[in-house]
Amino acid sequence: MRMRPATVLTALLLAAPAAAEEARPAPQCTVGICQVRVTPQQLLARAESLVHARRFGEAQQLIDALAEAPETRFQSRFLDGYAASQQGNYAHAADVFKAMLASDPRQTRVRLELARAMLAMGQTGSADRQFRIAEADGELPPDVARAIRGFREVIRSRRAWRLDVDFGIAPDSNINNATGNDTVTVLFGDTSLPIQLDSRAQARSGTGQTGSVSAGLRLPVSDTIAALVDVDTNGTNYAGTAYDDYLVQFAAGPEFRVSRNASVSAEAVAAQRWFGGRVASRQAGVKGGAQLALGGLRRIGAQLDVRHTDALFDRQYSGWQGGLFVTGEQAVAKTFVASLGGFVRRDELRAAAYSNTELGVTAGFGGELPLGISFGASGSMSRAAFDAPIALFATDPRRDWRYSARMTLGNRKVRVFGFSPQASVSWARNDSSLAYYATDRVRLRLALARYF
Prior knowledge:
Oligomer: single chain
CATH class of the largest domain: Mainly Beta
Distance between the termini: 43 Å
Helix content: 10-25%
Number of domains: 2
CATH topology of the largest domain: Porin
């Protein structure tokens, strides 16, 4: 290791008085000139002992000296963050630990210290996320795993609010979610005739400005009951108003903690959607959820959502809609989680030709990569069967195969006014027995996101 003489001298002068009780390297003297040689590992051991003794000023100069040695750079950075945290400088500690995880997200000890620093700064949501990732490490000692579970329970019981915000642009191949066919076949008695579609009934591409805000309150009522309030909004604005699409949803209700690893909730739901500058639909109903943690590596959840839709754009689409969704999560590595689920949906609408039952499966995989990159990939496949035929198009009820896929990449290390870049691409396809309802859509979303 090569270090500046002044740095080495300062480090040795600081270490020598306090090391009287320790074994010190023997000086080597030649012609009355004595030198003391130490290894980076010896300086590191001394810095660690000074930090544990809370002699941070002396330790910091050793830590700075160690930063020049490649073989101890990781340890010196960790000591720098740990010492800052012990002195209450949590912001600096968090910056150090984030930089270390950006280089190697598998460092569980570093992640735990980052979580503690975030918790001390009041960033409970971010802290819980880091604890959750650390909890997936299958090599954790039992006492550490128990401590993490305890931290997460405290966070869940104290977390009062959350706020997620993003905005960006969204190039889209099919902003009106319409068919890509130029013609459709219609029935006039026993005669089939091809009809040329108006351009407004065909798929149109475009680029819009998009954004979303998701906020929630969780207010403790007792040791086992909390009141939940959630507001979710999202929208996309295109040139003109014909295809602008906005949605606002509100939900509120109680959550019951059944046990340390299980909880259930029930919320009233209200939603309204605008499309093309007009109110397209209103919804009111209830949704209930249940979650069960199976150790630190598995979790299963279920959600039941039932609501009545008032479709202002076409009353034939008004009626009841319900769905049951079940998902299981499994940590497959320290920073990766896989999920698998299934769902059943029922639309009981005013028109039997639009009423249908849908069965499907979902799968997902996501986690963190080096350099602060996070990623996620998910997909679904389902089959929808309709109750009655649409007489204009066919004598048999409509049948659809529906497919979707989505991939997201983000980088929390890069920040612009606290916002981090995020890119996602989504694909949706509907293979329908009726050509008019066959659609294909690809959407790219480039945004800046912040999670409070």
